[in-house]
Amino acid sequence: xxxxxxxxxxxxxxxxxxxxxxxxxxxxxxxxxxxxxxxxxxxxxxxxxxxxxxxxxxxxxxxxxxxxxxxxxxxxxxxxxxxxxxxxxxxxxxxxxxxxxxxxxxxxxxxxxxxxxxxxxxxxxxxxxxxxxxxxxxxxxxxxxxxxxxxxxxxxxxxxxxxxxxxxxxxxxxxxxxxxxxxxxx
Length: 186
Known about the structure:
This is Zinc finger CGNR domain-containing protein. It comes from Streptomyces lucensis JCM 4490. By secondary structure, this protein is mostly helical. The protein is 52% helix and 6% strand. Strands 1-2 form a two-stranded antiparallel sheet. It is globular.
């Protein structure tokens, strides 16, 4: 599956957006306030975003919850339904652009769109490409028992199980190794 630069950026953005949600009541929301949203927009180099407000923050949190539903969807039909809702509500307006030193690519949000519509349109279309390609199962949650972070499995054989092999994956492998050693010396 060919993944263009703008699609990869949208995938990274949607994963970070979903993972900004608190996993439980004790966790801190990664989009706690408008300055946090502004940092998110800046760090993901989102173009055509105006002055942000509390309204934008609320709208982005709603979009984030819908994206989380896509990563939890049991099948392609359910994911497609959620993606269709997001993209339609955003008033998708595909257009070619070549800004900020990037070659021609497609933006799906309308000029002047809110940040929530921008995210819903561009990120929704990036996820749509996976459903269309029959690759919805690549939209995953980490299998570590204490982590449910979202990620997109871009491995060739669709075998990635953890959001980060150096943290979650390694931690589980070390724990399994120690359990085997303890049982062997038992």
